[in-house]
Write a structure and sequence with these properties.
Layout (H helix, E strand, L loop, with lengths): L26 E3 L5 E3 L9 H12 L3 H4 L1 H8 L2 H28 L6 H8 L6 H12 L4 H14 L6 H21 L1 H30 L23 H15 L15 H30 L2 H7 L3 H10 L1 H35 L6 H4 L9 H16 L6 H29 L19 H16 L18 H28 L1 E9 L5 E9 L1
Helix pairs in contact: 1-9, 1-11, 1-14, 3-4, 3-10, 3-12, 4-10, 4-11, 4-18, 5-6, 5-17, 6-14, 6-19, 7-8, 7-14, 7-16, 7-17, 8-9, 8-14, 8-16, 9-11, 9-14, 10-17, 13-14, 14-16, 17-18, 17-19
Length: about 525
């Protein structure tokens, strides 16, 4: 069946662009004034699902795997807790920024929409660079690796480079197939695993209070809260890397923003789901850290690496409980992989709908099972490559940092975009022309978020003082790779949007269309000049 083109060229107005169905959100305007059309039956996500979509993305393996590294990098219990608090404050500032943008532009795509709405010149440059970030980073790889590590630990099998990654490959492949072939069951499984995560964290918190009372299976009770700041390091590299680990554990508060076109009553839902999920996770994270310090001596915590939670269970409940509960930590990692690939697959699909990629219709497809199967596959492929490539010992830390660093770069520009809207809320070149979302983050909060992310972008280039987070890689590699990812998008834009049109004597005109699946997409037409 032929596709029906209903939207006019970029900058023009579609026949339906003045219509907005606020009840079911059937039409949502994008940043270029085009009507972003979806259908009511696509809106599968309610409030509970939206909360768990955020909760599952935030709570993966970070809280079970990174606290030991944070203590090692900061040098003391007191400073590590302080770094967690700083990370949570930054996360709340970021949540306010994303809540304002999400309620002002409620459609799939997240940061892509926000950056395109403000940075309209040079045409398509922001979209190309953002597309490079989305297409070339495998967010789901890190927690797939830890899933393998915890499953093998629970089975009492020695962890090697390839059995760990083999189990991780099975994890991410299962997540891809579930979301690609059975969307509703994938969402239900995410919600169920969210409940398991909540239960396991509550078990750790309660057990922590028991450990504070002296009930641990150790000859000597840990004493981490006396002289809590003893051993504190003054290394900028160590503190910044520790803060990155915290931010990695808190990544995901914006997860619902990527699926707002599939959310029932998206504005109201986001205003409740985002702060509720972030508040719950923040409280649990602080309590879980306190529980770790109550049951695990500082030296053991530092040496335990990514299986810190297993050490905690062993010290409080014994070895049998340690292995059994390690399975639940692995399930937590699997829930995170499900949540990550769910949202990243939709981002790939949105990039495809923009028409900027080769074979855009292919990437934008919702076939064959009414889910972004191709987008999910692309993220699976990149995640597997990133998961298998780094050398042993460095895989998890490299994946963590190579994802966190570019995100800080994106957040710098997201914050700048919102500050620009505060200073210039009206522009005839934007749609809506007047920026008046139902929620305001406020200028001081946005400026704080900007400064925090600028610090996170610049500080990692400071040479470490014997604290390189990698065993075999240069300390700055994740920064170089992160910047290189955006450069790839910029080079693609120069060739596709500048050099080739000049050689061919044409200009690119973006036109919109509505496919037989009921969703809009864009195509680029070459107009002779």
């Amino acid at each position: 069946m032929a596709e029906k083109t209903v939207l006019v060229r970029e900058g023009g107005e579609s026949p339906s662009s003045k219509t907005r169905d606020s009840k079911d959100g059937g039409r949502i305007h994008n940043a270029n004034g085009e009507a972003y059309i979806t259908t009511p039956e696509r809106r599968q996500l309610g409030l509970i699902s939206a909360i768990f979509l955020i909760f599952n993305r935030m709570v993966g393996t970070g809280i079970f795997a990174t606290p030991s590294g944070i203590v090692a990098l900061s040098g003391s219990v007191g400073l590590s807790l302080f770094i967690w608090v700083i990370g949570i404050v930054i996360a709340f500032a970021g949540a306010a920024v994303y809540l304002e943008f999400g309620t002002g532009l409620p459609r799939n795509g997240g940061e892509k929409n926000y950056l395109e709405y403000v940075f309209t010149r040079p045409k398509f440059l922001v979209t190309a660079m953002y597309a490079s970030w989305v297409m070339l980073l495998g967010w789901a790889g890190g927690n797939s690796v830890v899933f393998g590590e915890y499953i093998l630990h629970a089975a009492n099998v020695e962890v090697t480079r390839w059995n760990q990654r083999g189990v991780g490959l099975a994890c991410i492949t299962t997540a891809f197939l579930i979301h690609g072939l059975a969307l509703k069951w994938g969402v239900r499984l995410q919600n169920a695993l969210g409940l398991i995560k909540l239960a396991i964290m509550l078990i750790i918190v309660v057990s922590g209070f028991v450990a504070l009372g002296g009930h641990v299976k150790l000859e000597k009770k840990p004493d981490n809260f006396t002289n809590a700041f003893e051993g504190t390091t003054a290394s900028a590299y160590g503190i910044v890397t520790a803060l990155y680990n915290v931010i990695w554990s808190l990544i995901g508060y914006s997860n619902a923003n990527y699926a707002l076109a599939e959310t029932k009553n998206p504005v109201k839902t986001l205003k409740i789901a985002l702060p509720a999920a972030l508040t719950l996770v923040s409280i649990l994270y602080i309590l879980v850290n306190i529980a770790y310090f109550a049951a695990v001596p500082k030296e053991e915590m530092i040496s335990s690496g990514r299986i810190l939670a297993a050490s905690f269970f062993r010290n409080v409940m014994g070895e049998q409980a340690e292995r059994a509960l390690s399975v639940f930590v692995a399930l937590s990692a699997f829930g995170n992989v499900l949540s990550v690939i769910f949202s990243q697959g939709r981002l790939v699909q949105e990039i495809g709908r923009e028409g900027i990629l080769p074979f855009s219709r292919f990437w934008a497809s919702n076939k064959p099972f009414n889910a972004p199967f191709v987008g999910l596959f692309e993220h699976w492929l990149v995640s597997v490559a990133i998961m298998l490539a780094p050398p042993p010992g460095d895989a998890y830390n490299f994946i963590l940092n190579v994802i966190s660093y570019p995100l800080s770069v994106v957040n710098v520009f997201v914050a700048i975009a919102l500050i620009h809207l505060y200073l210039k809320p009206f522009s005839p070149n934007r749609n809506p022309q007047q920026w008046a979302p139902p929620f305001k983050a406020t200028l001081p909060v946005v400026v704080f978020f900007l400064l925090a992310n600028l610090f996170l972008v610049i500080a990692p280039y400071v040479p470490p003082d014997g604290q390189n987070v990698y065993e075999h890689l240069p300390y700055y590699l994740h920064c170089v790779v992160g910047v290189g990812i955006f450069v790839v998008g910029g080079v693609y834009w120069v060739i596709w949007a500048q050099i080739l049109p000049r050689i061919g004597g044409y200009e690119l005109i973006r036109e919109g269309a509505v496919g037989q699946d009921g969703w809009t997409y864009n195509v680029f037409v070459k107009k002779n000049v």
